[in-house]
Recover the amino acids of this structure.
């Protein structure tokens, strides 16, 4: 059974071998660029890890794994435009390096390329694979729309936020694991447990990302810290602060989030100070543990050799350096 690193290296090797037409260089150069950046490859590796719980023939899983990774990176191109993000994985975002229009069009072709890889599965399961994949793809878009809607919605609840990150982030991780189980020959009940594990660990992972966005080490995190605060994102940290704060602090917090600040550094520092005073880091870690525990509960139902790798991986994902 291959390790996470071995599977990630295999994914990287296949991504590097993708050939693009020379006459379409202006379209595909951004695609090559984003796919070449150092990444954890969480979704494709989880797909292949799920597959190898039930089958040693990784050839059956590699194409859909590549498809999932291309789709994920397609969403990043478009998300970075909508978020006006300058850096991704420590490098310039595609729209900053080229242009918004280039990032949109290159992202579009990545979506098509992802389907080219996704259909390279056994014919007898292609319908089921595409059903899982299509449902996840639609939910990712719904989650992104909710994320944008929240920018103008005054009263966003924590439960609404959790549902949004479930769709925007977690369902693709969950679907990747279910597809891996399907290509490996797992029965439908085991596929459900794989999906639930992926969904809950994905929610925990995004909550950790929210925490790192505010309090992480920028060099380690690979993105500009304080970006969510700068963009007035209604993350769990913000929503929990509103729930926990007194009226005076709520007014201060809303003032920061409802006005454009000329000094973003000061704004970020002021908001982080509020978060610290309200113990928002502890509140976030408690919620992360809740979803991590739910993921572990699903994993207990999967009684096959090799599942211990998922315990180790989930702990590593959530123990990322602040």
């Amino acid at each position: 059974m291959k390790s996470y690193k071995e599977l990630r290296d295999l994914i990287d090797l296949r991504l590097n071998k993708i050939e693009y037409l020379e006459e379409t260089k202006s379209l595909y150069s951004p695609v090559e660029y984003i796919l070449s950046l150092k990444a954890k490859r969480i979704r494709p590796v989880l797909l292949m890890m799920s597959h190898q719980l039930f089958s040693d023939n990784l050839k059956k899983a590699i194409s859909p794994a590549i498809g999932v990774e291309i789709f994920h990176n397609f969403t990043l191109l478009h998300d970075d435009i909508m978020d006006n993000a300058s850096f991704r994985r420590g490098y310039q975002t595609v729209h900053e390096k080229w242009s918004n229009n280039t990032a949109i069009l290159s992202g579009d072709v990545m979506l098509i390329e992802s389907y080219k890889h996704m259909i390279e599965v056994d014919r007898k399961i292609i319908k089921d694979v595409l059903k899982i994949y299509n449902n996840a793809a639609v939910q990712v878009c719904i989650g992104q729309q909710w994320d944008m809607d929240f920018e103008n919605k005054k009263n966003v609840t924590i439960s609404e936020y959790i549902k949004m990150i479930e769709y925007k982030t977690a369902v693709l991780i969950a679907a990747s694991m279910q597809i891996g189980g399907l290509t490996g020959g797992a029965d439908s009940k085991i596929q459900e447990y794989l999906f639930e594990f992926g969904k809950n660990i994905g929610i925990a992972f995004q909550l950790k990302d929210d925490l790192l966005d505010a309090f992480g080490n920028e060099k380690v995190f690979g993105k500009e810290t304080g970006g969510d605060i700068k963009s007035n994102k209604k993350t769990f940290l913000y929503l929990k602060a509103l729930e926990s704060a007194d009226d005076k602090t709520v007014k201060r917090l809303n003032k920061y989030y409802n006005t454009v600040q000329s000094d973003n550094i000061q704004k970020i520092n002021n908001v982080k100070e509020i978060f610290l005073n309200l113990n928002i880091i502890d509140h976030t870690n408690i919620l992360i543990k809740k979803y991590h525990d739910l993921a572990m509960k699903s994993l207990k139902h999967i009684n096959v050799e090799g599942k211990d790798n998922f315990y180790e991986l989930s702990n590593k994902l959530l123990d990322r350096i602040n």
In short: The CA atoms of residues 9 and 41 lie 9 Å apart. The chain has 16 helices and two strands. The domain at 4-318 is CATH 1.10.600.10 (Farnesyl Diphosphate Synthase).
